[in-house]
Design goal:
Strand order of the largest sheet: 1-2-3-4-5-6-7-8-9-10-11-12-13-14-15-16
Number of domains: 1
Number of helices: 2
Order of helices and strands: HEEEEEEHEEEEEEEEEE
Radius of gyration: 32 Å
CATH architecture: Beta Barrel
Structural class: mainly beta
Strand content: 35-45%
């Protein structure tokens, strides 16, 4: 019995010694980097250039060595960390994620536009009443394989028009499968943008002005190429950007949600000099981040796509149809002139064919200039745009719109404050109670545009 007690006591002493020795060895091991894990350089944490520690074996000690003297650590600077986007600028390259995304993955984003408008709904020439418009998009996208991606987004809006109830208009935006095999050849299938003109791949977020072109006050039908709500439709697009985006093409077939309709064929060819535009989406202006000379042509065709408006009769009549087509051409010039600022010029022309179209043609031009220096946290930009659209009604006068805008760009196109004035004359076709005439319009507005980069 006594021998067993002594043996147990000896084992307890031996165990305590091993614990003390092991603890000291662990402390020494943590204090000295191994040969397999060199210490990163303090100047560049991503570049491990320090020499590895000696691999010579040392006996563990019960008492760890005193730590070497360390330089005092400076307290963190007050305030938020610096932004990845300089004030008034856009990022020169995509901002890398905080961690490398896995595949499959999912990404989220959002953007919104809102503006306070001054205009009398009963007399559009007066600016003595106030209303507000609000719209936003919720964006999601993901990647299943390096060749296979998806995109689903939705949009909502409060139009801020006379007699509209306080109810949100919510509907899908993009719902598509993306097969991206090569920069020169990609296939998108689903609900997506119908690309014909330069303005289509960027939408209202890719232009300088707050209001998208082609929409004349008092007329629901825009003077833009044919598409469904929000410039989108169900179909398939084949597109590619050879030569790093200096050449880009889009070929699409739409109206495929209804097998009784003839497909709407749509296409665009674009040549971008000085700098390429390799992505499906693009901007009309890059706010001085990219010098650009871009020339593009586009067109659409749909058999029986020009449809006669059906009068309200009993019984209803069968509308007549005609083939629909359009042809568009555009020129975009943008140059960063260094200390002289940034100059942007855009011109576009649209020609429509079909007996029952609302519009015969549209042309527009815009000039933008941005100051080179940052004022506060942003840059100031001035823009003037003129639009002229001709109605197909016999003897119709041209509808015109002039927009003058001053914007303050905090993060280039990602965050903008816009104040502007627009004046227009819209031709209203004759009705049973009124002859055809021009309706004047005056609007002053203050808008905010925010987008997740």
């Amino acid at each position: 019995m006594s021998r067993r007690s002594i043996s147990i006591w000896h084992l307890r002493i031996l165990g305590a010694g091993l614990l003390l020795g092991g603890g000291a060895w662990v402390n020494v091991a943590h204090a000295q980097p191994s040969a397999q894990e060199p210490t990163p350089s303090a100047a560049d944490p991503a570049d491990s250039t320090a020499a590895p520690a000696s691999t010579e074996h040392t006996e563990p000690s019960a008492t760890p060595a005193a730590p070497a003297s360390e330089a005092p650590v400076a307290p963190p600077a007050a305030g938020p960390p610096p932004s990845a986007i300089p004030d008034g600028e856009a990022p020169t390259k995509p901002i890398p994620p905080a961690f490398a995304p896995a595949i499959p993955n999912i990404d989220f984003g959002g953007r919104l536009q809102t503006a306070i408008k001054l205009q009398n709904p009963n007399d559009p020439t007066k600016m003595n009443d106030v209303s507000q418009v609000l719209s936003g998009d919720l964006l999601t996208s993901g990647q299943i394989h390096r060749y296979l991606k998806w995109q689903v987004s939705a949009t909502f809006s409060y139009p801020g028009t006379s007699g509209t109830p306080s109810a949100v208009n919510f509907q899908p935006l993009d719902v598509l499968a993306r097969v991206e095999l090569l920069p020169e050849f990609n296939v998108y299938m689903g609900r997506m943008i119908v690309v014909v003109s330069r303005f289509d791949p960027g939408g209202p977020w890719g232009i300088d002005e707050f209001f998208f072109p082609g929409f004349f006050p008092g007329i629901a039908a825009p003077a833009m190429p044919k598409a469904n709500a929000n410039g989108r439709d169900v179909g398939t697009t084949i597109w590619g950007a050879p030569l790093k985006g200096h050449i880009k093409y889009y070929l699409g077939a739409f109206n495929l949600y209804d097998p009784t309709l003839n497909p709407l064929l749509s296409g665009r060819l674009q040549v971008s000099l000085l700098n390429g535009e390799p992505n499906f989406y693009q901007r009309t202006t890059y706010f001085g981040t990219k010098d650009l000379i871009s020339v593009g042509i586009g067109g659409q065709y749909q058999k029986d796509g020009s449809v006669q408006p059906v009068p309200t009769t009993t019984p209803p009549t069968v509308p007549r149809t005609d083939d629909y087509s359009n042809l568009t051409a555009d020129l975009t010039f943008e140059k960063n002139i260094g200390d002289a600022g940034t100059l942007s010029l855009v011109a576009a022309y649209f020609k429509y064919n079909g007996d029952f179209n609302r519009w015969k043609n549209l042309w527009l031009t815009s000039v933008g200039y941005m100051l080179p220096q940052t004022i506060g946290i942003g840059k100031v930009r001035a823009t003037v745009r003129y639009q002229r659209g001709l109605d197909t009604a016999p003897g119709a006068d041209a509808s015109t719109l002039l927009d003058a805008q001053l914007s303050y760009n905090v993060a280039a196109w990602y965050a903008r404050f816009q104040v502007g004035y627009r004046h227009g004359d819209t031709y209203l076709a004759p009705t049973a109670t009124a002859p055809g005439h021009l309706q004047g319009n005056n609007i002053a507005y203050f808008g905010v545009t925010l987008a997740d980069p």
